[in-house]
Write a structure and sequence with these properties.
Blueprint (H helix, E strand, L loop, with lengths): L8 H12 L3 H4 L2 H25 L14
């Protein structure tokens, strides 16, 4: 009849790539997870602070109001 899902090239490629990527548990233990999460939060706040100093947002509708 038709091909099985396991015979499709995309499935084989996905399985091959999935086997090469390390699992979450092999990369992080509890302590390193908290350290990485803490650094992510700190750099997010730092990035937002720096962006707030150099980026100015203007209201887009101010210049496009119809004259009456």
């Amino acid at each position: 009849m038709g091909k099985s899902l396991h015979d499709l090239p995309a499935y084989k490629l996905t399985e091959h790539l999935y086997s090469k990527v390390p699992t979450f548990d092999s990369v992080f233990d509890e302590e390193t997870f908290y350290i990485v999460f803490f650094l992510l939060v700190i750099f997010s706040f730092l990035g937002a602070y720096v962006a707030s100093r150099y980026v100015t947002l203007d209201d887009a509708s101010v210049g496009k109001r119809k004259k009456q």
